[in-house]
Automatic annotation (TrEMBL):
Keywords: Chloroplast, DNA-directed RNA polymerase, Nucleotidyltransferase, Plastid, Transcription, Transferase
An individual GO BP term: DNA-templated transcription
Name this polypeptide is given: DNA-directed RNA polymerase subunit alpha
E.C. code: 2.7.7.6
UniProt-annotated stretches for the region Alpha C-terminal domain (alpha-CTD): 284-370
Similarity-based family: Belongs to the RNA polymerase alpha chain family.
InterPro entries: DNA-dir_RNA_pol_insert, DNA-dir_RNA_pol_RpoA/D/Rpb3, DNA-dir_RpoA, RBP11-like, RNAP_asu_C, RNApol_insert_sf
Sequence segments annotated as region (Alpha N-terminal domain (alpha-NTD)): 1-244
Name of the coding gene: rpoA
Predominant location category: plastid
């Protein structure tokens, strides 16, 4: 129905939200369409918007924790009276979803007495910072002790990895891997249609957020960020920018003997992987004969969940390969018929299938015989 409406529309490009739902407090979903677009425009917008949604939108997270009133020697130590070790508490703090639009470092704290179950609602925050899900778990106090943590909250974008050896900083605090990404997943698909004698495209954009932003807000923020990146090109060229000439530039030489040896080694490793996979398939066949068949809904395992590289994901999506079942039903030669699908992508798919076969072998080995 949407397709018919778009085909009959004018040349003015318009967008619309065709589906919106809240799956949980920390998972919102939105599906949008943009049309009508000329041939090739949907890919241009889809790729740019996906990158902007995942990497350019700011989010708020807990970046540091300092335990008070107790001595903690390292991240993997345990505190008497607390069920979880320190590193598990830090991981639970990392999962807390916050909503905040102010920049700068924000201080927060947790001060409770046991025995009790500590959740996100126990965090004392400034009024301008909101906890999305107050039931998110932090720790369990099994004894009547005082549990006190000082927290540091920051607003940033992307993913910040801590650079420590699981030890405290000089002030006694522990850094936390900060995930400042309100958008969890982005997926786009392109539908081709005709308007008279003209080919047109419809862009479908799916956005999942962590609840700190709605998909509509994420789409707006990503659009504003993209526009901001291109604005400098609208201004006159700066004449006083001086780029130093690189004197030590050189052209790449032809493939050396060493490089050819590396390439040969690469293909040998691929052959070894193929032999290993064939061996595991035979082992799986034997286990299937001895034990009751395990039904795996491969058609419900979507490629969005497989953590594929962007290039591999886009190649599969364009070829209407949407699930693990589709991948398993596709022959090796058919993969190479896909546009822009290279050896590197084939290796990634081969490794994925090998992992799935390993997973099945483990399942069958742990299953009782019939």
């Amino acid at each position: 129905m949407v397709k018919k409406e778009v085909v009959g529309s004018t040349r003015t490009i318009q967008w619309k939200c065709v589906e919106s739902r809240i799956d949980s407090k920390c998972l919102n979903y939105g599906r949008f369409i943009l049309s009508p677009l000329k041939k090739g425009q949907a890919d241009t917008i889809g790729i740019a918007m996906r990158r902007a949604l995942l990497g350019e939108i700011k989010g708020t997270s807990i970046t540091r924790a300092k335990f008070k009133k107790v001595k903690v020697s390292h991240e993997y130590s345990r505190i008497v009276g607390i069920e979880e070790p320190v590193h598990e508490i830090l991981l639970n703090l990392k999962q807390i979803v916050l909503r905040n639009f102010t920049n700068g470092v924000i201080k927060a704290s947790i001060c409770v007495s046991g025995p009790t179950r500590v959740t996100a609602k126990d965090i004392s925050l400034p009024p301008f910072v909101q906890i999305i899900d107050t039931t998110q778990y932090i720790a369990t106090l099994t004894e009547p002790i005082d549990f006190s943590i000082e927290l540091q909250i920051e607003r940033d974008r992307g993913y910040r990895v801590k650079h420590t050896n699981n030890l405290q900083d000089q002030d006694g605090s522990y850094p936390i891997d900060a995930v400042s990404m309100p958008v969890r997943t982005v997926n786009y698909t392109i539908h081709n249609c005709r308007n008279g004698n003209e080919d047109e495209e419809i862009l479908f954009l799916e956005i999942w957020t962590n609840g700190s932003l709605t998909p509509r807000e994420a789409l707006r923020d990503a659009s504003i960020n993209l526009i901001g990146l291109f604005i400098p090109f609208l201004h006159p060229e700066e004449g006083d920018i001086c780029l130093k000439e690189k004197k030590n530039t050189f052209t790449l030489p032809p493939l050396s003997f060493k490089d050819r040896v590396s390439e040969l080694k690469f293909w040998e490793e691929i052959e070894e992987l193929k032999k290993y996979t064939d061996k595991k398939i035979k082992e799986l066949d034997k286990l299937r004969k001895k034990k009751k068949k395990i039904e795996i809904p491969w058609d419900c395992l979507f490629i969005d969940q497989l953590r594929l590289s962007s290039r591999t994901y886009n190649c599969l999506k364009k070829s209407n390969i949407n699930t693990m079942l589709d991948i398993m039903n596709t022959r090796a030669e058919d993969f190479f018929q896909i546009k822009d699908f290279r050896t590197k992508e084939f290796v990634e798919i081969t490794l994925l299938i090998a992992q799935m076969i390993d997973f099945l072998v483990i399942l069958y080995k742990n299953k009782r015989s019939t």
